[in-house]
Amino acid sequence: MALYCVPSRLTRSYILISAFCLFCVRSDQSAGTGADQPRTQPLTSRTVRTKYGDVSGVIVTLDSKHLEPVEVFRGIPYASPPLGSLRFMPPVTGALWPGVKIADKFSPVCPQRLPDIFNETAALKRMPKGRLEYLKRLLPYLRNQSEDCLYLNIYAPAQGRSVGAHFRNGVLEFLDDIVCSGMLRTNL
Fold first, then answer.
1. What are the residues facing 59 on neighbouring strands?
2. What is the mean pLDDT of residues 63-90?
3. Which of 100, 110, 95, 102 has the alpha carbon at shortest distance from 151?
4. pLDDT band at 146 (very low <50, low <70, confident <90, very high)
5. How do the domains of the chain map onto residue ranges?
6. Which H or E run contains 76?
């Protein structure tokens, strides 16, 4: 009999929102691009097969000469919406979708109380300036809230591009390189 660890909805929400926040802040820092102005991005050249159906995402070019482009799949449902009789219950397997799902838009975030930062002077009494600036960039993404919020945003190195010497052909080559270089023997 297998034991499964099902994280609470609050834990899942925290993890998803944290990952979402990291991407939003990074992608919103590009010049001339605001949260209300979607960036035009080409669809990826590959379609990924999941147990729910096929998915295609977008390639995001990051604003650094040291960072390679990233393949992003936004708003992929991982469970049925927790509405009606499913509210306050563990997640239930989602429905299959026909055709290829274009995963290029963020889905709603889980309902939450947003901090009041409109009065900047009062907000600075409650939080450091860095946090206030961070929240200003983040709030436009948190305004779209819904109980139907069980979605993933997945980030992966873009296919067909070198992502450093060890990752060119995937994780297995990376692990092989670690073993061959003796890193495991010296660090165990």
1. 71
2. 91
3. 110
4. very high
5. 9-31+40-157, 163-188
6. strand 70-77
